[in-house]
Design brief:
single chain, elongated, 67% helix
């Protein structure tokens, strides 16, 4: 007898839950029917929001990776090879030497160190002699 009561109680609980779900679905449907048409959206506010999002994303990108946001002049880019991921010009010998460093994170460390030293020393183009001096840790 208690098994029947238990089954009856569970069935009643399930029916109550289904009723609550049905009521929620009806209320959601009513709210969706009451919302304004998408054609009524204020285009000026939408454009203002798009502008804000664009400016925000641009600012965050510059904060996260500033070296990718500062672009050198096009004329400067065409005058020879550069150290990887920098704006520091170098000779082809240096470029070849950098490519021979087998471990990527070590290569990046060496390039960053040489680039920093070149900026501090005011070197216009990194040659092999300067590279060898600046790359030593």
């Amino acid at each position: 007898m208690s098994e029947q009561n238990s089954e009856h109680q569970r069935l009643t609980d399930v029916e109550e839950r289904l009723t609550r779900v049905e009521n929620l679905l009806v209320s959601i449907n009513e709210k969706l029917d009451q919302r304004p048409d998408l054609g009524e959206v204020d285009t000026e506010k939408a454009e203002e929001f798009k502008t804000w999002v664009t400016n925000y994303v641009s600012m965050r990108l510059q904060q996260l990776v500033p070296e990718t946001c500062d672009h050198p002049d096009e004329a400067v880019l065409h005058d020879g090879p550069y150290l990887d991921n920098t704006t520091v010009p170098c000779t082809e010998e240096v470029e070849h030497r950098v490519k021979r460093i087998p471990i990527p994170f070590v290569r990046e460390m060496v390039v960053q160190r040489v680039a920093e030293n070149a900026r501090e020393a005011g070197v216009e183009r990194v040659d092999i002699d300067f590279f060898e001096k600046a790359a030593t840790f």
